[in-house]
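To the team - magnesium ion complex, inputs and output below.
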Amino acid sequence: MASKVKGEKSADPNILVSHDRLYKIDQLRALNIGKYLPLPQLVTVGDQSSGKSSVLESLTAIPFPRGQELCTRYATQITHRRDDHSFIGISIIPGPQASAEHKEHVESYYRQVDDTAQLQAEFAVILDEVNTRMGIRTPNNPTGQHTFSEDVLKIEKCGPNEDYLTVIDVPGIFRTTTEGITTEKDKSMVRDMVIKYIKDPRTIILAVLPCNVDVATQEILALAEDYDKAGERTLGVLTKPDLLKERSAKASVCALVLGKRKPLNLGYYIIRNRGGDDDEDDLELAKREDMFRQEPWRDLPDERVGVGALRERLRDLLGEITDQAFPKIRTELRDMLVKTQNTLRNLGPSRKTERQQQQYLATMAGKFQELMRAALDADYSRNKAFDDGELRLITTIVNHTEWFDLTFRKSSQTYLFVKQAGLSDDGDDSQEPPALAEVDPTAFPELASVMVTNWSTAAPQDGIMSWIESIHRDSRGITLGTVTPAMLSSAFRGQSVKWEIITKQYLSLAILAVHKFIMKALEIVCNCPNVLPRLSAALLTQLLASYDKAMEQAMLLVEIETQRKPYTLNHYFNSNMQKVRGLKIKDQMKPHTERITRSGGEEVRQYIRPEKVFSVVENKSNAEYSREEIHDTLRAYYKVASKRFVDYVYYLAVDHSLLSGPDSPLLLFSENWVLGLDDRKLANIAAENHQTSDMRAKLEKKVQDLKEAIEIL
Ligand code: GDP
Ligand code: MG
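Output:
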């Protein structure tokens, strides 16, 4: 490069170490690792017009727009990449806040030129295009919305012998706003942009200070000090020495370079860039730097003067920073690899072909069935997903069934039966049914058509005998006996009207538990947020059909039990009847019992006279007798029928229809179901959308890059 005037790098072994690492970093950069984590870089900072862009131009030999009107409005990043071919690529990296639209708009910009000469020739045009893309207001783009942009102009210089330097030119810090051009918001945006770059410990800060202003007034040094407390990576670059005329001014700058004034840990360098407003544009670097052979500059140490010296120092510094950053980069790369691999794994396998889609869903179905079996066996130690109580299906069902059984005993009768001493009476069972958990009707709106909405049950009423009397009166016919089967039927029908609602409530609870389990289990086995809703939607129709079926079966049982003529083969019915009769006679005889006692008052025996027995039986009217007969038969039958009913509702409607029967909704999501899907349905559920396949491709590339990067290190 023509700009190298001072000596070439010496073969210092310490520098070689850094160079080896620099070379590795360079390879990482070629792998685009810089996209994932920050690599060592240089940034020029300073006031507007201090000569930042000029310094970069001198360092990189890339022509930069200089001068007042074209002062930098966005960060420009110049990277160098080794490539078989020489070219310069120009692109735009969207800012962090960019909208999707703006992102696409700027990312689609790309220009390529052969060399710096061509870039120089076309730069004005290219910058106009870039400004327009970014939406920056310039004389050529008066409709632009912004003065500054967070987008980054990226200039990538490629070639077989490229340097290691990456440099960034940020807009100059300004202190006063100009009406119609710069606002307070711009001011803080630029400041934030500068800070974003200088706070990175891997950034070397080139604080650019023109010789012709007082260093003490340069805010940038204070800012750099804030973020580089130890001053390990801040370097002063003094520009425009040629503009100094007075001897005293020159002396003062020399003092700065010699470290006699406002010392900076890494010191000051003095360089002369191209001037803007004279005819020196063509003045070669070598010619420009001739001035350093004159007083007072020639007394300054060589390694502090000129672009060559600065560049050499920068390479060393970059090497040192890289050395320091190296172990951290390595750990970060590893961490990032693990994270990326996890994200990739969570995406599941690729699903482009029908087979892949089938495989994907079938694996999921297998896991679902396993979870389901464990849930039915209450084998909760098999999967830690069961730590969440919602998945403990069979336990929930058992609790609900207990509720059903107790509620049935306690309040399924319309009227309380008459208390009979010596007979356990279900209507008066002391055990209260467990309280129902709150059922939130909005939790699963898809169940609205299946679930019951009324969750209350009325307590049984008193007054059974007068109710039986009215039945007896209203349905008397001409019969020999007093109790007809029709009377019993209508008594039982009246006594069992609440069976339907209680059964519906129980079934609703069971359906809810099963549905909750299915949805939760699907969530566990399907870790793709796109597939999950499509899969559950595809299952839903069939699920609802099986819930409906279970409810229908329960209602069929209600119908059979309550609407048909009461009948049972169960011998408990007869023994119950007889037991009641016996107990009643015992009660009725009690007042007629006579006792024989010894003189001491001790009872010897009890007896009843036969004529007393007649009077007890004969004294009852026909109606009275019939009512008691109906009541007692009803009670004996109710007990047997309700036990039979509760058992069967559980067996048929819950266990068979909802849990373990062949048409159970739990068995629906199975490999067979997956295999039965036609191509279109399969793709609808399991195909990846573009986003996912794009993401997978990106992640795969990233994993590969990171692996290669770790290999390099
Ligand atoms: P920036 O705003 O900090 O990027 O400053 P520029 O690099 O655009 O420089 C501002 C003006 O100062 C331009 O006209 C440059 O040509 C001029 N300039 C920069 N460095 C020097 C120098 O060393 N000598 C002279 N004479 N002019 C310079
Ligand atoms: Mg500039």
